[in-house]
Write a structure and sequence with these properties.
three-stranded antiparallel sheet, 6 helices, mainly alpha
Amino acid sequence: MDANLSVGQVATRAGVKVSTLHFYEQKGLIKSWRNQGNQRRYKADVLRRISVIKVAQNLGISLAEIKQVFANLPDTRTPTKKDWQHISRAWQQQLTERIMQLQKLQESLDSCIGCGCLSLKDCPLYNQNDHLQAQGPGPVLLQAKPHDID
């Protein structure tokens, strides 16, 4: 397949900025070739890779995770329908856990005024005497994995 799409054509078709394409290329997520005039050219299948990247980012999947998925494809090819089914199953578990965390957060916020001070005696997130320090840094109650929830 010839690499005949310009950076502008790909950006327009994919709905991203040219700088985004350059960034994705710098991160090793997509690949371009140079023509005789040293201009970037892309194969049409780059549009599928960009679509996967955009969908994954909208789901909260990191670029590092996306890159790892792409790296596991034979010959760093563009994901096929079968590949996508495998990829999406792997990401569904992450999304399920994230949904459960958001539901827990939503339930916790019902009795919170949202100020973040964690100083109210009746706050369900209150951490008197910092007893949660032993469980790790940050808001450990809100960051707990679903399987960690009591």
